């Protein structure tokens, strides 16, 4: 009886490798009647009509036309994270289904990770750790050096919420900050972080010691960084990617790293994720890869869940949806 | 800026010495050194090019200049050139501009002649060892110029008894060490090392979505030791909207506190109880050996991380092992241990909630250069009887 009062929301599964977190279930069940994909498939006829929202946690469940056709009362897909490149917005629009994401709460964690990658790469932290713990280490060599982050030049490509937070952090390291963006930020915003606008991406690439990608993935940013852009970078420069793997032409990156066209790369995102186990990027000493952990903190994931709950509730009560993604 | 400080130190020594023939009047070391790998922008380097009036020997032949200057240059003892523990080539070139270099090997092979020439010793990464025997054999030794700020490896009292001064390089180390403190905090919080292993492991088939770290932004950072380095850490942490607590021998001025939003904790216990990250940034003295032991670790939050960029001996390592094994604290990140490296069977090496780096606080091309410059400026000041920028005194 109680369940019927709560709106029915489709999720992929609970726990396991990509499911909704066990610790989040209690909160969700206070607001929704959760239906897993398994339960739905076993009882499509009845449950199909009941489902009014999809809680999409880390790109699952996968939404296709077939699913949309069998969910006549679907009002909203709430997607976790800020990226929506995995969704077919046109398709959803045709079925009159709204979409929401969780843009701002991921910003500080992602900016923090960008800084972490820049520092770890520049100071050779992972390599240093391996030396410190290796059973073969007898002494720490004197000549073993990294490069300084403080005082260096950081070029931020994509000065949205995340890019700006990176700039705020980098400023405290007395970095010179250049940025490239679809449109220039206003003077106060620039002055607050000491950021200099580069209308042409080439100017940013030529001058930066660290190039950080903080754009979202769109047809315009797809393979934004390819052979040409890598060659414009300094041979002593490092590429850091906290956006999407597809913003970089990966084969060109491999070649650039192999030929020392650039010094190093630090990637939280690749295409695909994970990379095939025989991919050249996995073997390169001057490459640091992390498993897409930009927003991977307990607090942020909890906030994401709360955000998504809010968005679903708003959609089902015909109120303005916080963080609605419009076409 | 700290880079201009080193340059000004050398410049001011020149102006005060009134000895234009001395070779140290020459071109700024940044330009003079070979194989300089700095990625600083060209504009920055150009600012430091000296004018036409410098390098007094330009009008004479190179060989004659060399002979003349070698005669006048004070003798500097170093461990070795290159090799495992020796001074790097580009630093050697820098030192040669101001000193006549004598390696330990050369000294030992010819003690009689060399011992009188040596007026200074350049100590880098604790080498060469300065013991009683060495001090007794160097009658004209005036100064030990340490590259780096920590001098816990030097017996200050003994050295002072020989009438020899000791100098260190507090300015040159500050930025790079603060950076490593931040790097360790971020890497530990976000499980960066573990994550990178998963990303490249041959066994990885997918990335688990419930694999999480802890936040740095808006967390509470407790800095123990708010000297030059600690303050730079605070400046950086503030940009991450961290709440900053600090414990120090004495409180900083109000303006300094406000500039970084730091709150003074007179009692270290208060800092330990409230912090999500505790960072040790003190120098090692006889008084603060094992300042972090079982009691202190017990006061920390079970979700807290201990970061050490001071000296290994500040922590009771056995107590730390126990605390990490029993999840008394969440994790530790250490750039320094005691000894370095740790014995290969040490329990710290086997824990999965610890990051250890091989004492790389100043291991950057830029810092190594600046430390040498600062050490040179200090040693020359001693030899020329001028005010010494960074002398270290025994207690």
UniProtKB/TrEMBL annotation, chain A:
Residues 22-325 form the D-isomer specific 2-hydroxyacid dehydrogenase catalytic domain. Gene3D superfamilies: NAD(P)-binding Rossmann-like Domain. The keyword Oxidoreductase applies. Residues 115-294 form the D-isomer specific 2-hydroxyacid dehydrogenase NAD-binding domain. One of its GO terms (molecular function) is glyoxylate reductase (NADPH) activity. The keyword Oxidoreductase applies. GO terms for cellular component: cytosol. Keywords: Oxidoreductase. It holds the Pfam family 2-Hacid_dh_C. SUPFAM superfamilies: Formate/glycerate dehydrogenase catalytic domain-like (SSF52283), NAD(P)-binding Rossmann-fold domains (SSF51735). Belongs to the D-isomer specific 2-hydroxyacid dehydrogenase family. This is Glyoxylate reductase/hydroxypyruvate reductase.
From TrEMBL, chain B:
Keywords: Oxidoreductase. GO terms for molecular function: glyoxylate reductase (NADPH) activity; hydroxypyruvate reductase [NAD(P)H] activity; NAD binding. PROSITE patterns: D_2_HYDROXYACID_DH_1. Residues 182-361 form the D-isomer specific 2-hydroxyacid dehydrogenase NAD-binding domain. It comes from the Eukaryota. Residues 87-392 form the D-isomer specific 2-hydroxyacid dehydrogenase catalytic domain. One of its GO terms (cellular component) is cytosol. Coiled coil: none annotated. InterPro entries: D-isomer_2-hydroxyacid_DH, D-isomer_2_OHA_DH_cat_dom, D-isomer_DH_CS1, D-isomer_DH_NAD-bd, NAD(P)-bd_dom_sf. PANTHER family: 2-HYDROXYACID DEHYDROGENASE-RELATED, 2-KETOGLUCONATE REDUCTASE. Belongs to the D-isomer specific 2-hydroxyacid dehydrogenase family. This is Glyoxylate reductase/hydroxypyruvate reductase. The lineage of its organism: Eukaryota, Metazoa, Chordata, Craniata, Vertebrata.
């Amino acid at each position: 009886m109680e369940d019927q009062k709560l709106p029915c929301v489709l999720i992929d599964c609970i726990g396991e490798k990509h499911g909704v977190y066990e610790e989040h279930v209690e909160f969700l069940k206070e607001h929704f009647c959760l239906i897993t994909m398994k339960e739905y498939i076993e009882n499509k006829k009845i449950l199909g009509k009941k489902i009014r929202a999809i809680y999409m946690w880390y790109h699952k469940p996968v939404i296709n036309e077939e699913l949309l056709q069998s969910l006549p009362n679907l009002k909203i897909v709430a997607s976790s994270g800020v990226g929506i490149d995995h969704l077919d917005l046109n398709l959803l629009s045709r079925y009159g289904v709204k979409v929401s994401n969780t843009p701002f709460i991921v910003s500080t964690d992602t900016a923090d990770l960008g800084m972490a990658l820049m520092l770890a790469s520049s100071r050779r932290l992972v390599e240093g750790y391996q030396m410190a713990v290796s059973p073969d280490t007898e002494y720490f060599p004197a000549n073993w050096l990294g490069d300084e982050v403080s005082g260096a030049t950081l070029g931020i490509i994509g000065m949205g919420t995340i890019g700006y937070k990176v700039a705020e952090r980098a400023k405290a390291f007395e970095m010179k900050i250049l940025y490239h963006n679809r449109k220039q930020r206003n003077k106060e915003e620039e002055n607050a972080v000491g950021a200099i606008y580069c209308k042409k991406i080439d100017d940013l690439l030529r001058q930066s010691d660290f190039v950080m990608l903080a754009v979202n993935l769109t047809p315009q940013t797809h393979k934004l960084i390819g052979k040409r852009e890598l060659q414009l970078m300094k041979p002593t420069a490092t590429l850091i990617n906290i956006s999407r793997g597809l913003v970089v032409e990966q084969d060109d990156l491999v070649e650039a790293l192999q030929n020392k066209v650039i010094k190093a790369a630090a990637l939280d995102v690749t295409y695909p994720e994970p990379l095939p186990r025989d991919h050249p990027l996995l073997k390169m000493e001057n490459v640091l890869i992390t498993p897409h952990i930009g927003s991977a903190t307990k607090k942020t994931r909890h906030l994401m869940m709360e955000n998504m709950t809010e968005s679903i509730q708003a959609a089902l009560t015909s109120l303005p949806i916080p963080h609605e993604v419009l076409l | 800026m700290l880079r201009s400080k080193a340059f000004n130190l050398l410049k001011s020594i020149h102006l005060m010495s009134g000895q234009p023939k001395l070779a140290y009047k020459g071109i700024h070391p940044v330009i003079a050194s070979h194989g300089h790998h700095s990625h600083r922008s060209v504009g920055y380097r150009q600012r430091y090019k000296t004018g036409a009036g410098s390098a007094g020997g330009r009008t004479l032949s190179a060989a004659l200049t060399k002979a003349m200057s070698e005669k006048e240059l004070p003798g500097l003892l170093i461990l070795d050139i290159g090799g495992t523990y020796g001074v790097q080539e580009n630093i050697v070139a820098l030192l040669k501009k101001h000193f006549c270099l004598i390696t330990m090997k050369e000294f030992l092979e010819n003690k009689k002649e060399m011992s009188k020439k040596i007026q200074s010793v350049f100590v880098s990464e604790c080498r060469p060892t300065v013991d009683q025997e060495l001090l007794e054999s160097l009658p004209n030794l005036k100064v030990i110029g340490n590259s780096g700020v920590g001098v816990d490896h030097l017996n200050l009292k003994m050295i002072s008894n020989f009438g020899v001064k000791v100098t260190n390089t507090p300015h040159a180390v500050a930025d790079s060490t603060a950076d490593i403190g931040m790097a360790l905090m971020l890497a530990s919080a976000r499980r960066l090392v573990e994550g990178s292993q998963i990303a490249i492991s041959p066994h990885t088939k997918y990335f688990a979505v419930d694999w999480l770290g802890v936040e740095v932004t808006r967390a509470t950072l407790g800095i123990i030791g708010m000297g030059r380095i600690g303050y730079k850490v605070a400046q950086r942490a503030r940009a991450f909207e961290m709440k900053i607590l600090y414990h120090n021998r004495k409180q900083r001025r109000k303006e300094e506190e406000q500039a970084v939003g730091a709150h003074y904790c007179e009692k270290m216990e208060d800092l330990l109880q409230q912090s999500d990250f505790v960072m040790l940034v003190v120098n090692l003295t006889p008084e603060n050996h094992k300042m972090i032991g079982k009691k202190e670790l017990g006061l920390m939050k079970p979700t807290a991380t201990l970061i050490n960029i001071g000296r290994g001996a500040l922590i009771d390592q056995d107590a730390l092992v126990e605390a990490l094994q029993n999840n008394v604290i969440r994790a530790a990140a250490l750039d320094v241990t005691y000894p370095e490296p740790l014995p290969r069977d040490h329990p710290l090496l086997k824990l999965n909630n610890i990051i250890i780096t091989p004492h790389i606080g100043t291991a950057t091309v830029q810092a190594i250069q600046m430390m040498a410059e600062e050490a040179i400026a200090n040693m020359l000041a001693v030899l020329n009887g001028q005010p010494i920028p960074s002398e270290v005194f025994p207690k």
